[in-house]
Write a structure and sequence with these properties.
By secondary structure, this protein is of the alpha/beta class. The chain has helices at residues 9-12, 16-19, 24-33, 64-67, 107-116, 137-140, 142-151, 155-162, 195-199, 209-225, 227-232, and strands at 39-43, 56-60, 94-98, 122-127, 165-170, 173-174, 240-241, 245-251. Strand 3 (94-98), helix 5 (107-116) and strand 4 form a beta-alpha-beta unit. The protein is elongated and about 60 Å long.
């Protein structure tokens, strides 16, 4: 496993760019939180999702497999980790970290580094582990929900380390969300039957193959019998889902 975090993207990150694209509605909320910043540091940048195109962005990404998936119109990412950022104090107007802090090997040090190199807002898109069971997937694989909950740092910890004035905003997930994290498919349960979709969600790598097979088979049976729709079918027409996704914004 890579020393940069808890998931080996060199081995398993090959399909992320295809399934983990920036959703424009979530992206708008992230970019608004950056305020008037002209220089932005994107830490744990992955394949470049959510990077603003109208500002000067420096991306940091430790995985070569993820750096290789960055579109050609984006600048190459710096090979570094969150806990050892190679930049001076207050080097950037703003910093962003989108669905990445749970991957960092030293979350507290990484968040302190974000604050150190940023003179304006630090914007963190993450999930609140206490709200994971709001998604029906918990009925099919409680092991996955528990694995995910253990990985994500507490929202209060993030708040304490990224600023003295901090806001926490729920982020509504649209029904047709194009960023393929697990909660994005609240209204499209059939998508979890696709192995490629699950491979683009790192949490499946933290449960056993047997648990994954049982969960998928259970869901397939319930979709075939109509049981899932009897319990959750109203979600198929629900425009958005306010679950565990959070935008944490800290100001110095």
């Amino acid at each position: 496993m890579s020393g940069a975090g808890d998931f080996d993207y060199e081995l398993h990150g090959g399909g992320y760019a295809a399934h983990r694209r920036a959703d424009p509605r979530i992206e708008a909320q992230v970019h608004a939180a950056l305020g008037g910043a002209r220089t932005v540091l994107n830490v744990g940048a992955g394949a470049g999702s959510y990077e603003p195109a109208d500002r000067y962005v420096v991306a940091v990404e430790p995985s070569a497999a993820m750096r290789a998936q960055r579109p050609r119109d984006l600048a190459p990412a710096v090979n570094a980790t969150a806990q050892d950022l190679p930049f001076d104090d207050d080097a950037f107007d703003a910093a962003m970290a989108t669905v990445t802090v749970h991957q960092w090997s030293d979350v507290q040090r990484g968040l302190r580094e974000l604050r150190r190199v940023t003179r304006g807002p630090v914007v963190v898109l993450t999930f609140d582990g206490d709200a994971f069971d709001l998604l029906w997937l918990a009925e099919y694989t409680p092991a996955l929900v528990e694995a995910d909950r253990r990985r994500f740092p507490d929202i209060d910890l993030i708040c304490a380390l990224i600023g003295t004035r901090v806001s926490v905003e729920p982020v509504p997930i649209p029904m047709d969300c194009v960023d393929g994290f697990t909660k994005a498919y609240y209204a499209r349960p059939e998508r979890f039957l696709d192995p490629a979709v699950r491979r683009a969600q790192s949490v499946w790598g933290f449960i056993s193959d047997a648990d994954e097979t049982r969960a998928v088979d259970h869901l397939r049976r319930d979709l075939g019998s109509g049981s899932w729709d009897r319990r959750h079918g109203h979600l198929r027409t629900q425009p958005e889902f306010v679950g565990a996704l959070r935008l944490v914004v800290g100001h110095p």
